[in-house]
Structures are given as structure tokens and as C-alpha cells.
Amino acid sequence: MAYVIKMDSITKIYQMGEVKVHALRGIDFKVNEGEFVSIMGPSGSGKSTLMNLLGCLDTPSSGEYFLEGINVNSLNKKQLADIRNHKIGFVFQGFNLLPRTSALENVELPLIYDRRGRIKNPRKAALEALDKVGIADRGHHQPNQLSGGEQQRVAIARALVNNPAIILADEPTGNIDTLTSVDVMTVFQKLNNEGITIILVTHERDIASYARRIVKIRDGKVRKEIIEENPRDAKKDLEELKKGQAFEEEIQ
Amino acid sequence: MRLIKNLLKSALKSIAKNKTRSLLTSLGIIIGVSAVIIMVSIGQGASAQIEEQISALGENLIIVFPGSAATGGVKLGAGTYVRFTLEDVKKLKEEGTLFNGVSAIVRTGGQIIGGGNNWATSVLGVSTDYTKIREWPIKEGEFFTDRDVVGKRKVAVLGKTVADELFPNENPVGERVRIRNIPFTVIGVLSEKGQSPRGTDEDDVILTPYTTALYRLKGGRYIDMILVSAVSKDQITQAQEEIRTLLRESHRLHLWQDDDFRIRTQTEIIERATETSKVLTLLLGAIAAVSLIVGGIGIMNIMLVSVTERTREIGIRLSVGARSGDILIQFLSEATVLSLTGGIIGILLSIGVAFLINRFTSLSALINPGIVLLSFLFSGGIGVFFGFYPARKAANLNPIDALRYE
Fold first, then answer.
1. What are phi and psi of B134, to 5 degrees?
2. What is the pLDDT of residues A192-205, one digit of tens each?
3. Domains and CATH numbers, chain A
4. Contact call for B321 and A110, based on CB within 8 A
């Protein structure tokens, strides 16, 4: 099976004045097509740095990174931008939607910068992406008129719209409550079932365990890999949570 | 193509989202552009007015002034004024080949009494060619003839103002007026001429034969100046040269002696008169252009604020695959659209103001399409120039830092 992501002894060193900070100390990391991987680690473990490298927002100090067979290290700034556009979909903790811009236009944003011109009708593609995350009817709303869960769905739709090789989700549930978090996880699981490769960075064990594989990072190195034989089913959890909530309301 | 269109669309959108701010930012350019156009228009209007007035002196006009006697650069000053004599005029008239008309001018003046009124005015002694040279037709009666000139007859032709002052409600032709107590017969009235380039009333004048003015009013032998009109515009230079040759002969000047007269043409007078207004136009235009540059700095300022404010947006755009060039174009076009919009509003404003100036003031504003185009392009250029630094700052942002920016 082809690797979507293949990282070989990646290091990243930040020069902070006089001090050298070793954020990553030799990471070997592979992701197969169609996988759902969680990267877990405490703050300072280097998982954000890894995320930035995976997303081609930054380049490693040493080591090799192949994204769908392309050696990313050899690319210039322009080519990196194009790689981000063609192959990567980002979902951020703080949603990062353009304010005062409709959900549809937010989802269309990556298509503006797609120079390949594959998608003839951006509006239609954006609508389809919104439909996939289940909020096709909210297309004309602006971010401040949407709930946290809905905003994150718009962000996922934006990540999807260009048919990327992977979706990188950086603490996607960090800013939302538990119920909504599980709700967002149902979207990721649904997309993964449809064959989309997803990498999820989180520090919450509960959230990480919705993935089929959990990679634990500490001090810039991979410490542990766990294969979940039976990952949690977000849909079922959501139903139970809702039931629980309904019960609580009844009591009150 | 779609990319550029979309970047331009984002730029327009962000301008539309901050209407008040955009308007205030453009205000500098609006004021600058309209100031430049209005200043230059007024200047050019003034030049055109002066030119028109001087043209009213008569086509192809050459004026010969007396000068000072001089030998090889040693000028003997005002006391040695060499004036023209009747012989000079006669020689020009008889021997000139390129002249349409020659007229002596004898200037005098005094209190005029007539029709029970009196009026102080200037009296010009002129030749019969004068009306032809000045293109100044008679309105009533007739002009004097060569016989009147030879006979030093006491006939007078009144300017419109004098006629109105002395004979308000009647036809002055055939009436008598007294110039310095000497009785003259009014034989004609001139048509209205209006203001001279110096702003004096041209119609406030009485014309008599120059011989009469010389011998009966002034009591001298000398003629103050000579007006000549060339046969055509292209022959003014040759005519000038001919005047020079004839007058040098007439004054018996040796080769080593300088001219003792000065020749001025219509074009020279126009140039002199409009030179001042041109310098003024340039100066006012330059001052106005400074305000344009200040407007540009205003745009740069706001664009810098905007880049900082929208750091996160830039981060988002970079993360979804915008190249730094795309960000540069987006912000650059935003600045350019701001300044061009300001330019267009400024142009419309200045056209409005020019209309009001022409309508309600004595100034005339002449809008030159060239200056309109120039200031439009200039305002666009200002947008690009002052927008470049903020746009580059935006384009060079690191996507990771930009995404984390609070």
C-alpha cells in the first residue's frame, strides 16, 4: 500500500537567540492512504511543530519528508504554497474562518488559489463540501451567525473542497464543548469511512481514541504507537450523550 | 485570470466592508486630485483669458517703441530718448512692403467737455490705418480720412465709454466737444472693445488724427510709438526685420550703433503676459501635488493598520495555499483601488467646482483633459507606490505566526 506520508528521521531545531531548541529529535512517521491517525502529546512535546511540518507550513532542519511520493524538502516557497493548496486540508482549533464572509465563500477560498483550474464551478464544489459535513443549508450565514460546531464543520468543508490527500486537524475540539466535540468527531469518522486520510492532533485521550491509530509524542520523539482494534464510534457516543442530557433535563 | 479576478474581488469587498474608513482614506487623494485639477484649470483659464485679450489688440500686431541712443553697448539712458518723427512714419508707410497698415500713436489726454457734461479721458492721435490695425470697427458715423490728417482737422472719434458719458441718450455724431478748450467735431463712435490686457477700459478714449494731436493738443514733434500690422502671421518676423531696416535708415544709424527703438510683436507680448500665470500655475499645481503625496501616505498608514488587523486572515489564506505573490497582489490592488476611487471622485469634484467657478466668479477655470488623465494615472501610481510597502509586509508574513496572531 502506498504511503501518503513518509517521514524519515525528521528533526527541527529553533534558534532562540543563543539557545538552540530541539523541537523534534528524529521522527519516523508513516501514514497509509485511508488511515485515521491521532497524534497525542503534552504541550511542549513537539506535536505542533510536527503538525506545521506535515502541513508544509514549515520545513525540517534535517530528515526527509515525502508527501504522496514528493520530496517536500526540495520545494521552494511557491511550490509549498501549491502543495498546501492541492494536497492538504487544514482544520484549526480556533476555526480560522474569514470573518464577515459567508460560509460558502469561506469554503470556496482554497479554490481561488488553485491554479490547476480543475474545478469549473467553485460555488457548486463548495456546496457539495458543505453538504458532506451536513450544513448545506447554512451556506449563506456568516461565521458569527453559526454555532461553534457549525463553524468547525465549515472549516472541515473548506479543508475538503480541494480533494486533498490528507486532512490535518490541529486540536479541532479545543474550543468546543464535549457534546459538540463528539459531534465534530462524527464528521471526521464519516469522512474517514468514505476513504479520506485524516491526521488529528490532540491532547485529549477521549478524542484521540476515535482514531484507529494513536501516536504518542514526547520530547520530540515518537514514544508509543497504539493500534485501536475497536475505535470508539462517535455516532453512538453522541446518541448516548444526547440521551443522557435529555434525562438530566427531565430530572430537573 | 480567475485568480486575479478573485483577488480583485476580495480587495473590493474589504474596501466595501469598511466604508467610512475607506472614504476617509481616499479623502486625501480626493482633495489632492481635485486641488491639482482646479489649480491648473484656474491657471490655464487665466492664461487663456490673457491671450484672448491680447489677441483683441489686433492680429499680426507689431508695436515699435522708442529706445535710448546707444553705441556699442553704452546706453545713454532715459534722458536720451530718441523718439519717432513724422518722417519715420512716412518712411514705413511708403517704403514698407510687408505691412498691412501703419499708424503713429500720439498720446495725450485731458478734460473733455461736451453735451453739457465733462469727462477726463485719454486722447490718442492716430493714423487712418488705426481701426484696420486694431480690428476695431466704427459703430456710428465714420472714421477720419487722410485729408483730415493732412489738414490737421479738429475731428474726433469717441470711444463707447466717452460717448456714453458725454451724450448718454443721444447720437454724438455731428456734436461738438471741447478737448482742453479746443473745439472738435465728433464724426464717429467706435464699437465696444472691452478691457485691455492690463485691465483698463479700452473704450475710454478719443481718437483724433495724429497731426491734430501733435500740433494742436500736444505741441511737439515727436510720436510716442508706431503700430504696424504685418500682412500675415507667418510674415511677422520678416515684417519686423523690415521695420528695423527702414527705421535704422531713417535714423541714419551706423553699423556699430545699436537700435534706438524696440520692436515688440503680439506673440512676445502674449508670452510675457502668460509667463507669469504659467509659473503661478506650476507653483499651485506643485503645492496641490504635495497634498496628493500626503494622501498617499494616508493610504500607506491605513494599509499598514489593515495588514496588522488582518494578520490572521493572511495566515488563513497562506495555509489554504495562497502564494505570497497572491497576498501581495491582493493588498496592492486594495491600495490602488482606494487611490483610484479617490482619484475618480476627485476628478468629478473638480469638474463640479470648475463649473461653479465659471458660473459664479470672474475667474475662469479651463479643465484640460490632459491634466485630468495625468492626475488619474498619478493617483493610481500613488496607490501602487504607497501600497507596496504594506502589501510586501503582508506577503512576507510567516503563515505559522500569522495563524497564531491574536
1. -85, 0
2. 999 999 999 998 88
3. 36-52+86-251 (3.40.50.300)
4. yes
